[in-house]
Structure prediction request, 172 residues.
Amino acid sequence: MTERLVPVVDEGRDHVRGAGPQTLVVFGDYECPYTRAAYRSVQALEAGGVGFRFAFRHFPLIAIHPHALAAAEASEAAAAQGAFWEMHDLLFRRQGELEGSDFERYAAELGLDVDRFRHDLDTRAHLQRVEADRSSALESGATGTPTFFLDGVRYRGAYDRKELLSALAEGR
Prediction:
């Protein structure tokens, strides 16, 4: 059985960066060390000029990562101010610092409206978005993080830079 991405990537809904003929989607968790390793591999591919679209969807593993849900909501609060990718990158770079006060400090560092950011977190304004991604992960067959899909089909290979590059080159 081929596991397919549900729903397909929609640039009006998903957080997407890059351009190219292929789309790589990862379901990730900001507190997961394996997702962080995958993030570094994707970053290396992007920095190396490999042409592909990259989409990130939230799959916080709240049973084992107590800060993952709040971090996902913080990234969405930043997205509401046009800074999803900046917050996304910052959360992975500072994975060991994911407390509530850290998020506000990051928002300030990124030049966001901190009062608006704090309000979004306090009211859980973006929880529904995070939950929609989580539902997508489960519907697509993800059971852990990171879970990759390449052009809508589950990718089960290694997520180091070399293997991801090979998968993109082969279209598998």
Summary: The chain has seven helices and five strands. The longest helix spans residues 33-47. Residues 23-170 form a domain with the Glutaredoxin fold (CATH 3.40.30.10). The chain has one domain: 23-170.
